[in-house]
Amino acid sequence: MSTGTTAGVVRARQGHAARQSGGGRALGHRQTVHRGADGGRGAGGAPTRYLAPGDPLDLPDAHEYVVKPTSEAGALYAARYTPEQHETAVRQLRRMHAEGLTAIVQPYMRGIDAGGERALQFFGGRLLHASRKRAVLPPGTAFDAAKVTHPGLEPWTPTPAELAVAERALAAVPDAPELLYARVDLVDGEDGRPRVMELELVEPNLFLCLHPESLWPVVEAVLAAAGR
What we know:
The protein is an alpha+beta fold and 228 residues long. The chain folds into two domains: 7-44 and 111-228, D-amino Acid Aminotransferase, Chain A, domain 1; 47-108, ATP-grasp fold, A domain (Dna Ligase, domain 1, 2-Layer Sandwich). 18% of the residues lie in helices and 24% in strands. A five-stranded antiparallel β-sheet has the order 9-8-7-10-11. It has a four-stranded antiparallel β-sheet with strand order 3-6-4-5, covered by helices on one side. The chain is globular. InterPro entries: DcsG_Biosynth_Enzyme.
């Protein structure tokens, strides 16, 4: 999701990982891994805070930031705020907490406005293809508004620096060699270097409409992992 934040944690939701279990391979293992900004083996990330129901609603007062749930789809309950919009952000947090949701609060990374978000998708530990999209959260977008989740989506050729950061992020995942699938979302930091926005291991959209040549490698990898 192009919210303009980078993950100070590596959030690894492992659903497509094929794992050896007894005499066969099992699909559907789910695992969430949290790592600090320096715990992703050099993958890089911005400061991240979690606000669970009952926590003090402490929000940044010196820079633009994003509030979003720890788990979501379609950018639901994701919004971008300035310090002057504090009361609106508090209303969002109260609604999320009333629904039992924990919030992530991260600085807004302005690099996404110029360079977009690059999604590098891996199958079997190798780069399958990459795509780029524009930011999802223009200023003033309400947290509960419907959003275009893949604006300006286009094929992308990763730079060597982007590929290196993505590979370091993958290396931080336990049992990384067993992963069937992974997607590493990158955005430029304030220093112009690629930073990890999210490490996603459960993905409903492979963007095969942009990369039809990837269809058969995906099918073959899934069938092999399923032991068929």
